[in-house]
Write a structure and sequence with these properties.
alpha+beta, single chain, 8-stranded mixed sheet, binds adenosine-5'-triphosphate, 486 residues, 12 strands, binds magnesium ion, two-stranded antiparallel ribbon
């Protein structure tokens, strides 16, 4: 009883917090001048009947993180895109939490938590496969923030108040805070009003905010395409003139952003919008060639439509397969050109791959693991033509075989590869060992008898995890590579 009493006293949120707060002002945490002045006066608080968020759409882990921190006397909210999506009735794909606890204070309250980041230090709290990203309220930019010669912010880790944190976020609809305990939404920039009007509006001076971080221009395009929102005229106005600033962003971050765009569930709409806003030159110079290529059109449309379908069904996507699709026609074009110049078939293909990568990689750093997957998917295409002797057995053992077969099928569906060939390989790969031998013998017999291939498909039960089509599903290992690059 007495122990419980002491425990209560010493873990009481108010008492516990008083001492931590004093600590927290030392170092990077700027002393709080006016605890609730300006912020409290400006914030709009919406209650459940006003916002109608369905709490069950929120991650129970994100709620747990908020509650744990709140029980320790800190403030903690679900923030950003997750609140935007909850208000739209969409289940968010990831959850961020914002708090007044500093990274070390957050870390010590969770079993699996690590501090990451240089530009912004934040905490990843891990629950099985889910990671909740917890960031400490950031102060507004100051003269001490490190920027490059174009005004791009390189590093600033100064902690601040919640209203400052809100003002630093990109768009009004992304600057909302949801407290799952009280079920209230804090709105500092009329984000809910903009959300209802389906408008993306940058917070603050648009040109300044895009200069600080040019990636915001890509983000606005992604959200506009994905959510089918309009971009507010004054937010949109400076984009065309500032598009070149994209080139100053590290190539690895651009790749990451490009992947988000392609995996948004509205990839085609995003790419078109990106071109409309003139943002592709510095990032994806090949996009014009891709979207205007007469023979590429059905192939790319089909690949992107399939990708969007899978994203919407919450199935994983392989970045290697996606980029292999996007860049394939350019490789083919270069390949034909080299062959007509007298180069030998396969070396010409490899040289064509280098041509395309050389042009693309200076703008967007595709991680090496992914470029090697892309090359393999392409390089395996001519090998599907060889169905004699041991060649099919060797090909089927190749780690990229399934992705390459998906790719062949996509080509066949667009009449750019032989449909019979694709059907043959799918049938062959679905069979068990001995049946494969028989199947090959039949093919050879048919060939020598001069008859076509018309064999009924005998289905083998797919192994677990094979059903999705490997081209799209081999993403898990790539995801971490993409993250490594950022
Ligand atoms: P998504 O649905 O793609 O996850 P999101 O808005 O949640 O969209 P995140 O990249 O997860 O995007 O970022 C979470 C939040 O962090 C954003 O909603 C926004 O408030 C803030 N944020 C992210 N990137 C920036 C940026 N470049 N500038 C300012 N704020 C940003
Ligand atoms: Mg998010």
């Amino acid at each position: 009883m007495i122990r419980q009493f002491f425990k209560k006293i010493f873990t009481s949120p108010r008492l516990g917090k008083a001492s931590t707060k004093a600590e927290s002002h030392v170092g990077t945490h700027r002393p709080v001048k006016q605890e609730h002045g300006y912020a409290a006066a400006r914030v709009e608080v919406l209650h459940l009947h006003q916002h109608n968020i369905n709490r069950h759409l929120a991650s129970s882990n994100a709620i747990r993180v908020c509650e744990t921190l709140q029980n320790e006397g800190f403030r903690a909210y679900i923030v950003g895109g997750a609140v935007r999506d909850l208000l739209l009735g969409i289940r968010p794909k990831d959850f961020d939490v914002a708090t007044d606890a500093e990274p070390e204070q957050v870390q010590r309250h969770f079993r699996r938590a690590r501090i990451i980041g240089r530009r912004f230090r934040l905490v990843h709290v891990m629950f099985g496969p889910e990671t909740i990203e917890v960031s400490t309220f950031r102060a507004l930019q100051t003269e001490t923030s490190e920027v490059d010669e174009h005004g791009r912010v390189l590093r600033d880790n100064v902690f601040g108040e919640q209203h400052e944190d809100a003002a630093r976020r990109d768009f009004t609809v992304n600057a909302l805070y949801y407290d799952p305990k009280t079920e209230t939404v804090l709105d500092y920039h009329h984000g809910v009003r903009d959300l209802r009007a389906k408008t993306l509006r940058i917070i603050g001076d648009p040109a300044l905010r895009f200069r600080e971080d040019p990636v915001r221009m890509l983000r606005v395009v992604r959200f506009a395409a994905k959510l089918q929102f309009d971009i507010a005229p004054d937010t949109r106005a400076p984009i065309a003139a500032m598009a070149d600033l994209i080139q100053n962003v590290p190539a690895a971050r651009l790749f990451d952003e490009m992947l988000k765009l392609l995996q948004s569930g509205s990839a085609l709409a995003c790419l078109k919008r990106m071109r409309l806003e003139g943002l592709h030159d510095g990032l994806f110079p090949l996009l014009d060639a891709i979207l205007d290529h007469p023979t590429a059109e059905p192939f790319i449309m089909s690949a992107l439509a399939k990708t969007d379908e899978r994203v919407r069904a919450e199935k994983p996507i392989s970045p290697g397969f996606l980029f292999a699709c996007l860049l394939w026609h350019l490789v083919q074009e270069r390949w034909q050109l080299r062959k007509s110049g007298g180069e030998v078939d396969i070396p010409a293909l490899f040289a064509a791959m280098d041509d395309v990568f050389d042009k693309q990689l200076e703008h967007m750093a595709i991680p090496r693991k992914i470029t090697s997957d892309i090359r393999e998917i392409w390089a395996l295409q001519p090998r599907f033509e060889k169905r004699n002797g041991k060649a099919p057995f060797r090909l089927i053992e190749h780690p990229r075989f399934r992705a390459a077969l998906d790719f062949l099928e996509l080509r066949a569906s667009c009449k750019e590869a032989d449909t019979d060939l694709a059907v043959w390989w799918r049938t062959f790969s679905d069979l068990d060992g001995h049946a494969r031998e028989d199947f090959l013998t039949t093919l050879n017999a048919q060939k020598s008898a001069g008859t076509g291939l018309k064999k009924r498909r005998k289905r083998r039960k797919p192994n677990r995890g094979e059903e999705g089509g490997a081209g799209f599903t081999e993403s898990n290992s790539h995801d971490s590579d993409a993250a490594d690059a950022t």
